[in-house]
Amino acid sequence: MIKTRFTEMFGVDHPIVQGGMQWVGRAELVAAVANAGALGMITALTQPTPDDLRKEIARCRELTDKPFGVNLTILPAIKPPPYAEYRQAIIESGIKIVETAGNKPQEHVDEFKKHGVKVLHKCTSVRHALSAERMGADAISIDGFECAGHPGEDDTPGLILIPAAADKVKIPMIASGGFGDARGLVAALALGAEGINMGTRFMCTKESPIHQLVKERIVANDERETELIFRTMRNTSRVAKNVISTKVVQMEKEGAKFEDVRELVAGARGKMVYATGDADEGIWSAGQVQGLIHDIPSCAELISRIVGEAEAIIRERLERMTAGAKRQAAE
């Protein structure tokens, strides 16, 4: 068992989080993660309405009696979702852990804190982490350039970002972006984090509510199978490399604006990928960690494996190295 400030604060057995993922963070996956002793997150905006979110939370409660949370991502939108109503649904459902992400979450943090909800804020830079800490967040998820989804515009990989944030952030911090196995967990702890957040790795589990062919595509892909779209629009997003994402990148190079690619990147098309298994149907998120994913285990198998192997790395590999150095010094 690996105990950290994060596991103590959030009441979970293992320092592993399944973060919010659009179209993927549903009750069956979240409950499986929770039952395995890690922290799962329902993705609020996957649910069409706040009432649907209430029903999904209730469905998750039928599947687990362990702690789980809800992700609320605040992003620029032509027609913004009713964030305050989703927030109210989370509070009224008695959820005590929320993952926030995106722009200026102050009003949400304030309201959640008023109702005794712990806030884990996801960000992509040290300055934003410090801002979230000042805002009242209980913990930070620091997201490196390797991640699926929005890596920010600084292009700072986790190997630098995690320790840079650990030097300055006082509240517990988990590492996000590029994590998928025990080696990543041990590395994150060594770099100053209190645990890891995994998205793409959890997409590729038995309980993940996406098509089997997409899971098999993730296993087949290596670390090079992603594209960075919307770079020219300063809204970079890392997605799986496919016919559509490659076309969007080419169009951007030729000066395309968002209106020109809007139909190609529509969320409804991305949702169809997960429903039909056609990986070229639309844009879908995946990180460089695909290169470390070689199977489709259950969440329980995955979490047990990561924690068990992490303990073995710490106890055997690292301790053996230091013990050897001590022996040499004694001789």
TrEMBL record:
A Pfam cross-reference name: NMO
Residues spanning the signal sequence: none
Highest taxon of the lineage: Bacteria
Entry keyword Cytoplasm: no
Keyword annotations: Flavoprotein, FMN, Monooxygenase, Oxidoreductase
Gene Ontology MF annotations: nitronate monooxygenase activity
Entry annotated with the keyword Protein transport: no
SUPFAM superfamilies: Inosine monophosphate dehydrogenase (IMPDH)
Protein name: Nitronate monooxygenase
